[in-house]
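[audit] Reproducing an earlier prediction to check determinism. Same input, same settings, fresh worker. If the C-alpha cells differ from the archived copy the diff job will pick it up downstream; this log only records the rerun itself.
[audit] input (220 residues):
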Amino acid sequence: MPYYVRLMHREDVTLITEIDHEAFPTMWPPANYERELQTWLAHYIVAYEESKTAGEPAVTVTPGKSLPSLVSRVGQFFNHNRIPSIEEPSPTDRQYIVGFAGFWMMADEAHITNIAVRQSYRRQGIGELLLISMISLAMELNAHILTLEVRASNIAAQGLYYKYGFAQVGVRQGYYTDDKEDALVLSTEDITSVAFQKHLNQLKKTHSRRWGVALYHIAR
C-alpha cells in the first residue's frame, strides 16, 4: 500500500495531536503543534495513506518482521540522488495521516524533535522513511549535521539512528519529565560529505527494494 510524505499543514494539527498522544502518552506538557507551525525555526512533515481519507476508520495492519520502527513507510519521497521536488496537494484533501516528524533548524544544525507513527501502522518502514525525508529536507535547508535525544532504554530507535550514521556524543541525565529517564544525545557527521551521502544512498536503495518504493519525493 503506497504512503506519501508532504509538509505539515495547519489542518493536520488535530490528527497529528492524536498520533502524538498515542506515541507519547506520558509526555507532559503535550506538544502544541499549532504553535510549532507558527515558529519559523520548526519544520514538520507528515506521512499519509493515499487510498484512505481521514473520515474513514483506521485499518489495523499486522506488523511484519522488519526492524522495529523508531516510532514510525511513507511512499514516494526523495529520489536517490536529488533534492525533493515540490507538489501542491488539493486544499480539500482529508488525507489519513499515519505518521509525522519534525526538526528545528539552528544555524547549520537540524535538531530532530520527534518521529511518531500510528501504532497500527508500525513495522512498515514508515519511521525509516520519515528519517530519510528529514535528512534530505535538512540538506535542502543547508544543514550540515542532525542531532537528537533518544531514551536510553529505546534500543530499537537507537539501532535505526546508528544505522543512518548517528553516533552518541553525550548524555542528558533525567531528561524525560515523566520518569526522569536519561537521554542519549546523538549526532551525525557532515551530512553533505561524500561518505555520508554514499551510505545514505545505499540505505535508500535497500529500503526501496524492501518496501517497493521506486521514487522518493516530498510535497508541499
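[audit] rerun output stored. Observation attached for the diff report: Helices lie at 13-23, 33-36, 126-140, 155-163, 194-211.
[audit] end
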